[in-house]
Amino acid sequence: MTSAQIDMDQLTGALRRETVKKNVAAIHISGKLSLLQRKLSNVLLLNAYDALTTAQTHTIDARTLATMVGYNSNDMDTLRASLRALAETVAEWDMLDEEGRQEWGVSSLLSFAKLKSGVCEYAYSPALAQKLHDPKIYALINVHIQRNFTSGHGLALYENCYRFVRTGSTGWWSLEIFRKLMGVDGSNYYESFKHLNAKIIKPAVAEVNRNSDIEITPEFKKKGRAVADIRFLIKENPQLAMFQIGDDEGIRNLDVYKKLIDQGVSDRLARQWISEHGEDYVAQKLDYVRRQPDVKSAAGYLNAALKDDFSMKEVKVKPPSPEAMQRAQERLDQERKADAELDMRLAERARRARKFEIVSNLVSRRNPTQRDADKRLFLAGLEDDLERMEFRTHGWQSALNANAIFAFWAEMNPGAFDELEDS
């Protein structure tokens, strides 16, 4: 079962919601979550949404949850650690109620979570559940879009901008609030706006504009000579259609899609066939294949039926030759192999991005003297002039020196990358 297949089976009825309306209230969730923890939070909310204010607890299959978020489905240790992080994360709101009275509140993001007999059970506090369920206050994040993100800062910025898409602007945030949203408050390094802009704002804005259904533009307000406030202008991405490929306007909700998956067709190929041929045409060919005797590979036969337009009227026509079936099966196998290779590349890309994120956090904890010493020590270990020049230009985010950087910080901080060992 693929993670894409799991999405629709587990999260019926809540996969697409309208973006928030005007008069959006402020509800801030601590940014100190890893990329996978933030994705986990969104999937849990999506799973619970329809019964958010009517059920006290919610459940989802633990392996399904791990697979959807991007964990190894057998990695329950990482899942437990992430659930613990969500229970320790604070959600805070400060808004006007319907009668214009000020309301401030705070709650843990999850009031509890437990894993038992392969099932994850969890709950939200009643006050937070009410806020999260109100589309004027909080917007659900499309889990298909969030898969595109490879950094926690990028996804955090997307979440905090997406809910304002209808108003066109986030409104002004103090840099103090913005650092909290990005999870870098308390870091002396990011107290400098120069560092904050170069390492957090610019990369996160670029990732949102490249990977999501909105485009954002930062604006700054100064007090004296120093930048004090930031806001983001927001508009829908003109290439929105390309970001809806993940769900293809609800294709995964169609009965014909589920039947294709049951026949062993890959998620990507199933969506391609339905998009290319239409729901009715594919359903007809599925019915045709179902009626044929002695079909050894339903998926391969279906591929040929779609390509050559087999018809129920052709009752006297013999099934495709073994050679044609073999070719169809080979094409199907190639598609499955391509799917698997793409999944591996995306997983490695996410793993690499998480390592750079960990390195950035480790560097931020060092004082200026230590950081200078770290750079000199690392440079001394580089023998190639191009590698040294690349490091001087890009520092600890140098892609060319990625493996050397990870090895350096693993030696400096044993266990720094342990969370990624089994992922």
TrEMBL record:
Transmembrane feature ranges: none
UniProt cross-references to Gene3D superfamilies, sorted A to Z: Winged helix-like DNA-binding domain superfamily/Winged helix DNA-binding domain
Domain Initiator Rep protein WH1: 19-161
MF (Gene Ontology): DNA-directed DNA polymerase activity
Domain of life (superkingdom): Bacteria
Residue ranges that the Swiss-Prot or TrEMBL entry lists as coiled coil: none
InterPro entries reported for this sequence: Initiator_Rep_WH1, WH-like_DNA-bd_sf, WH_DNA-bd_sf
GO biological process: DNA replication initiation
Family from the record: Belongs to the initiator RepB protein family.
Name this polypeptide is given: Initiator Rep protein WH1 domain-containing protein
Upper lineage: Bacteria, Pseudomonadati, Pseudomonadota, Alphaproteobacteria, Rhodobacterales
